[in-house]
Design goal:
It is a single chain. By secondary structure, the protein is of the alpha+beta class. The protein folds into two domains: about 140 residues, no CATH class; about 180 residues, no CATH class. The chain is built from seven helices and 21 strands. Strand 9 and strand 10 form a beta hairpin.
């Protein structure tokens, strides 16, 4: 019987197929390796751009308020931000330019560039964008294995937004231990303009005395406070004058009112105002709703306000002489009404 031989692939054909598969997978592996190298390179460049945008926008937003006006100084803020852009290089190359925008920010609408009319919950904000692209900062980023991804370069950009808000919480050390009534602020602070009211005689903010209701009735009174701790003694008050609130205080937290503090405390305050140290002379105080401050009680905080200490007198009168002002800065978190005090700028979005 004749048998027809079955022809099997030769070793040479098998070797050729394996070679083709090896070549295919080698190209695939090289492609993934190239993608990984360039992805990491782009990540590093973008991270450097982001660091630059963050630093520049914080540098600019810190100049919205200089203590002379409640209107944000957008021009100075933009100038300072633009000047800070070249201070942080990318891939050891100096960044030459970026886009700086002023506007307002809210949790509902995000960043809203000027021109716009801010609402009650809109806060001054600054936005900085830096990019490596055609015509910007040396052009787009070169890729090491551009042929594998079909592009020799790619543009990279980063954006940062910073906002300045009034405090809703004061972190430890931010507050001076005097509580002022809300109605007192209605007398000496213009809520609509966001500025102190000026005395028509002097053309400057009103000078008034904070003292107990025994001497200063109704809306011309305030009182020493020991914040969350009920301690009505001279060493405690002196420590609070020097170091501020020992614990964080937020809106609606009750603060202890302490009437009848000794004369030496007023002397300590006078030394503070005469020292010429802005951190001592310009202070943030809690504002309370009640007008009855000549009682030993716990009263909720409604706001945080900036005052300038001019003098303090003990003896039979017992008062701290102050005026409303702007430009106080404390560490904390946002959410309160603006009464001259702001938090340091913070990054959002």
């Amino acid at each position: 019987m004749n048998m027809t031989a079955v022809r099997r692939p030769g070793r040479r054909s098998q070797n050729g197929a394996v070679a083709l598969m090896v070549a295919f997978f080698l190209v695939l592996i090289l492609g993934f390796a190239a993608l990984a190298v360039d992805s990491y390179h782009l990540f590093v460049v973008r991270n450097e751009l982001q660091n630059d945008a963050d630093a520049a926008v914080l540098a600019g937003a810190g100049h919205f308020f200089d203590g002379t006006s409640a209107t944000p100084d957008f021009t100075t803020a933009e100038t300072r931000a633009a000047a800070a852009i070249p201070l942080n290089p990318t891939m050891q190359a100096t960044l030459a330019n970026g886009v700086v925008q002023s506007g307002y920010w809210s949790t509902e609408a995000g960043f809203q560039p000027l021109p716009m009319t801010p609402g009650e919950n809109d806060y001054p904000a600054l936005r900085v964008t830096v990019r490596r692209a055609m015509g910007n900062n040396g052009g787009p980023v070169s890729l090491f294995f551009g042929d594998f991804v079909g592009a020799a370069t790619l543009p990279v950009a980063a954006t940062a937004t910073a906002v300045v808000v009034p405090p809703g919480t004061s972190y430890p050390g931010g507050l001076f231990p005097v509580a002022i009534t809300n109605c007192l602020f209605q007398n000496f602070w213009d809520y609509t303009a966001g500025n102190p009211r000026n005395d028509p005689v002097t053309g400057s903010p009103y000078v008034f005395r904070i003292g107990s209701t025994y001497h200063y009735a109704g809306c011309e009174s305030g009182q020493w406070t020991t914040f969350l701790d009920d301690k009505n003694d001279v060493p405690t008050i002196r420590d609070l004058i020097s170091n501020g609130n020992p614990e964080a205080i937020s809106l609606n937290d009750p603060t202890w009112l302490q009437p009848g503090v000794k004369n030496t405390v007023y002397g300590t305050t006078n030394d503070c105002s005469a020292a010429g140290d802005r951190t001592c002379e310009f202070v943030t105080v809690p504002v309370i709703e009640t007008n009855d401050v000549d009682t030993h009680s716990r009263t909720p905080v409604t706001a945080f306000a900036c005052v300038r200490i001019l003098n303090a007198v003990g003896g039979s009168e017992k008062y701290v002489e102050v005026q409303m002002t702007l430009g106080c800065h404390i560490d904390g978190s946002g959410g309160g009404p603006f009464l001259g005090t702001t938090l340091p700028p913070k990054l959002v979005q």
